[in-house]
Design a protein that fits this description.
The protein has 255 residues and is mainly β. It has one helix and 21 strands.
């Protein structure tokens, strides 16, 4: 499934909701657009929550601690992310216009909140020496099973270079995955493949990938695409970095 999404009157864009919209993703994911000096408080009694700064200038507070977070845009590889367990109150106060992605899922485990800075994020360069560089992309992982085994989620960003492919070769996995797209210029565009369907990816759109659907992405020449990638571990099937099954006819590409 693929959607072109808009912010509502409260500055909230809802990608999916547990028990509601796109419930098969098993996550609640929203993007909150803050106006200058706007403040919100979030506390969930059942869900772990991650707050990823997409762009802007704000203060984020939890458990008696306050941090200043700033990011010029999603294309500046300086993400800040706060990850907290259930029953943790988080206050966000925007000092300028700001956008923050909020990812949640149910989790009975209690863990210490983690504040990720740009120095904590893993960046990997994939595809640079393959296919004449046509699938070169930069993939960041903020947290996954390796550094957050207590979490039921995975969170990162992919920087899809102009005119190139990512999430490649075509592959699938049982765990549900959501992509949230942004472009370095508002008119930028690309193509999202989900199974046998192809969608035009544009600024602020999202795709929702379910079990068995091969997925791959491409962006138009002249435009850089950044998409937040979010996976929900399954109760008996944790997603690892190597958890991907290539489309049979394209397996040779991975070899």
């Amino acid at each position: 499934m693929f959607e072109q999404l808009e912010f509502d009157n409260n500055g909230i864009k809802t990608l999916c909701e547990m028990g509601g919209k796109n419930a098969e993703m098993l996550m609640t994911i929203k993007v909150k657009k803050f106006k200058k000096n706007e403040e919100i408080t979030v506390c969930d009694s059942e869900c772990e929550t991650a707050f990823l700064l997409l762009k802007g200038d704000a203060e984020i507070s939890w458990c008696g601690r306050t941090e200043h977070i700033f990011r010029e845009s999603s294309f500046v590889k300086e993400p800040f992310c706060l990850h907290v367990p259930r029953n943790t109150e988080v206050r966000i106060s925007a000092e300028e216009d700001t956008e923050i992605l909020i990812q949640q899922t149910d989790n009975e485990k209690d863990f210490e909140p983690v504040f990720y800075t740009p120095d904590d994020v893993l960046y990997q360069h994939f595809g640079k020496g393959q296919y004449d560089g046509t699938a070169y992309r930069i993939c960041s992982t903020i947290f996954d099973f390796d550094n957050a085994p207590y979490s039921n989620m995975v969170l990162g960003e992919v920087f899809n270079q102009p005119g190139r492919w990512s999430s490649y070769p075509p592959h699938h996995h049982p765990q549900p995955e959501v992509y949230y797209y942004q472009f370095d210029k508002p008119q930028g565009f690309g193509a999202c493949f989900i199974g046998d369907n192809v969608f035009k990816s544009t600024q602020g759109s999202a795709c929702f990938i379910t079990d068995g659907n091969d997925h791959q992405q491409v962006v138009a020449p002249g435009y850089e695409m950044c998409y937040v990638w979010m996976i929900r571990h399954l109760p008996d099937d944790t997603w690892y970095k190597t958890s991907r099954f290539y489309a049979k006819e394209h397996e040779w590409l991975a070899e």
